[in-house]
């Protein structure tokens, strides 16, 4: 028996490094828990293409939308921990831990970490004929007319939903929230004037802002954006402490070998250092994460801190999903 156990241990020690050294040997699936064409999907396809070249195997993006990103995340949590199924998710990975009462997975303990990809700024926007001419006027107008104003979002747990909750808390004014099944239809109705206000990522609003089809009022970053230098920050216009960005990270199922996660992390760092990726992200109002942030430890720390940050916000709002 001792000889058998010794042989098994020796085999394990030999096969684990060999597995990591040979990885990847086939196609990798990157699950994006939102619809194709949305801001998270855009980020995923940018990095997947470059990582494919570095890894020597194609990364295929699979969109598994629904339930605020929890369906796709749950699918990855149950996948084989072999490095061939990965998840690219945004801040909703952290907020779902409080938003959803019956998650099919335990967020902090269901995944391994690859690294942060990017932090996307948010912009407070409105239909193009919205009455206020600047953000201070916007604040006054919303406080005076909150009962009759609609605030669109892409569904519970979406970036626009989270930013909208913070906006209503900061203004101390409830608005009529209108949830949609995705960013696309939410933006379509804002463009058509069926809704009044939205707070969403630059990856989803830049084209419309530059085209004049929606009106932009403020950014949610600590400093103004080079992309929109004339837009004030929410804080400088009177909303003290109003700051939110939508960070994205890559995860693997719990139990994925550390060597595999490190290989994916190095590939992610290579992709984010690519000039083409940096330019594409700049055009969307964001930037690649640093090499230090595109590492497992950085993503783990980010997720843990964001779960703690958003838990009291969500509990104060009293908004939950089953």
From TrEMBL:
Superkingdom of source: Bacteria
Pfam families with a match to the protein in the record: TctC
Keyword terms, alphabetized: Receptor, Signal
Residues in the signal sequence: 1-20
Family statement drawn from the similarity comment of this UniProt entry: Belongs to the UPF0065 (bug) family.
Protein name: Tripartite-type tricarboxylate transporter, receptor component TctC
Organism: Paracoccus laeviglucosivorans
Phylogenetic classification of the source organism: Bacteria, Pseudomonadati, Pseudomonadota, Alphaproteobacteria, Rhodobacterales
